[in-house]
Amino acid sequence: MSLIECPNCATDEQLSGEREGAVIVVACGRCGITWERPAAPHCDRCGSTDVVAYPVPLIERSRGTQQSITAMHIETMCRVCDAQRLSDRGEGHLPARLG
């Protein structure tokens, strides 16, 4: 999923939001417009709420060719739009070819 940015001026720095029921009302501090976005995790491409959150390691070289996990972030994938990526990944945290 992508980061949130203003649909009018494309800033992603001066945004604030307030939850109102099933939506979050987002306001842009730069241009002043407001818009609603669903509060539940959803696919930005198709709007589906059938999404899966996967932990993804951030890997860096710590010494020579040795690689270390330095952080983790959560990647949200849509069961419709990302079906092939989810299939390649398998059921666990390892891709099917490694699991």
Oligomer: single chain
Percent helix: under 10%
Largest sheet: 3 strands, antiparallel
Strand content: 35-45%
- H/E series, N to C? EEEEEH
Mean pLDDT: 83
* Apparent shape: extended
The total of helices stands at 1
What's the number of structural domains? Answer: 2
Radius of gyration (CA) equals 18 Å
Q: Separation of termini?
A: 26 Å
Features:
single chain; 99 residues; mainly beta; 2 domains; three-stranded antiparallel β-sheet; two-stranded antiparallel ribbon; 5 strands; extended
Tell me what you see in this structure.
With 99 residues, the protein is mostly beta strands. It folds into 2 domains: 39 residues, no CATH class; 39 residues, no CATH class. 7% of the residues lie in helices and 43% in strands. The chain contains 1 helix and 5 strands. The strands form 2 sheets. Strands 1-2-3 form a 3-stranded antiparallel beta sheet, with no helix packed on it. Strand 1 and strand 2 form a beta hairpin. The mean pLDDT is 83.
In short:
The chain has 99 residues and is mainly β.
SSE diagram, text form:
Layout lengths: L14 E6 L2 E6 L5 E5 L12 E13 L2 E13 L4 H7 L10
Antiparallel strand pairs: 1-2, 2-3, 4-5
